[in-house]
TrEMBL record:
UniProt cross-references to Gene3D superfamilies, sorted A to Z: 3.40.1190.20
Domain of life: Bacteria
Keyword set, alphabetical order: Kinase, Transferase
Residue span(s) of domain Carbohydrate kinase PfkB: 22-96, 172-263
One Pfam family of this chain: PfkB
Taxonomic source organism: Aquamicrobium lusatiense
Molecular function GO terms recorded: kinase activity
Family classification: Belongs to the carbohydrate kinase PfkB family.
Coiled coil start-end: none
Protein name: Fructoselysine 6-kinase
Documented EC number(s): 2.7.1.-
Length: 303
């Protein structure tokens, strides 16, 4: 497909990224970042997710609105908006801990209807909705951010549903990045993008392997660099751009993201209760994934 403005819906996680030492918070989270960057790269982008009517939730909504992201599928729920605590070590972002708040939700019929009219849906590991990927894939192309998942059995479960599989491969060698991309393709993904921080990125598709070096910058804050790269890649693939062209654009855009604090700006004074913070390990161990469509039917039947 080569429409000028691909329609992308990002479904799932959001947070405010909190920098405690600076007492600043920035709208973010994988799916919010993806929607904002996709919009900046020319897509018609929507973000579907859940926040609360608190300072953080309003900051996320207002930033999406200011960026031209459609928030008609955003819901406000009672509780606390999700947050992530970020430390900055010489420009490199480090995840300290988080609380997912109300951000982990199942899609509504309205979300699914919108997906069926979109060119792609983006989601990822942080959204904890893997059980829905087959349904999403039956409606549109799926872009899935595996983040640091590298286990082939895990990849094999999700890759069959992926148009684009994204991997955060900072620290990986070229061979390791290639192995990840090939694992995704072998298991059914059409494209796989592995970013390797300052070592650049590699896109693997049926037509071959494409690589780009990182643009040389001295990073201020690398938060959101991978999301920038994946969003630019998805927009480019949907527009049928040549891989070398979209990779070069993606590397330039990702480098720019490294030059400002937060993922995409819109910082505000920190206004959130961080006492409920959990370590990322605790979150990945204890978060109950959203039940899939089949499980939900069972719940209804046994009531
Ligand atoms: N220190 C850096 N210098 C220049 N570019 C960078 C740097 N860190 C990241 N990038 C760019 O951002 C992309 C994504 O970064 P990466 O660290 O792989 O993602 P993640 O956000 O998942 O950690 C890289 O492929 C590169 O283009
Ligand atoms: Mg990185």
């Amino acid at each position: 497909m080569s429409r000028k403005a691909p329609r992308i819906i990002a479904f799932g996680d959001n947070v405010v990224d909190c920098y405690r030492d600076q007492k600043r918070m920035f709208p973010g989270g994988n799916c919010v970042n993806h929607a904002v960057f996709a919009r900046r790269f020319g897509a018609e982008a929507a973000y579907a997710g859940a926040v609360c009517d608190d300072a953080a939730g309003r900051a996320i909504r207002d930033a999406c609105l200011a960026e031209g992201v459609d928030v008609s599928l955003l819901r406000f729920m009672p509780g606390q908006t999700a947050y992530c605590v970020i430390a900055n070590e010489n420009g490199e972002r480090v995840f300290v801990g988080a609380n997912l708040g109300v951000s982990i939700i199942a899609p509504s019929q309205g979300d699914l209807d919108r997906m069926s009219r979109a060119d792609a849906v983006h989601t990822g590991r942080s959204s904890h909705i893997d059980a829905w990927l087959p349904r999403f894939a039956s409606l549109t192309r799926v872009s899935y951010d595996f983040a640091t998942i590298r286990d082939e059995a895990h990849i094999a479960r999700l890759a069959p549903h992926c148009f684009l599989a994204g991997f955060s491969g900072g620290g990986l060698s070229r061979e390791e990045a290639l192995a990840l991309g090939e694992a995704a393709l072998r298991n059914g993904a059409q494209w796989a993008i592995t970013t390797r921080g300052e070592d650049g990125a590699m896109l693997v598709g049926r037509g071959g392997i494409y690589e780009v070096p990182a643009a040389p910058v001295v990073p201020v804050d690398t938060l959101g660099a991978g999301d920038t790269f994946i969003a630019r890649t998805l927009v480019g693939l949907l527009r049928d751009e040549a891989p070398d062209v979209l990779l070069s654009e993606a590397a330039t855009a990702a480098a720019e993201t490294c030059l400002s604090p937060g993922a995409f700006g819109h910082g505000a004074a920190m206004d959130i209760d961080l006492t409920t913070m959990l370590t990322l390990d605790e979150i990945y161990r204890n978060t109950r994934p959203v039940a899939g469509p089949a499980d939900m039917k069972e719940i209804v039947l046994t009531r």
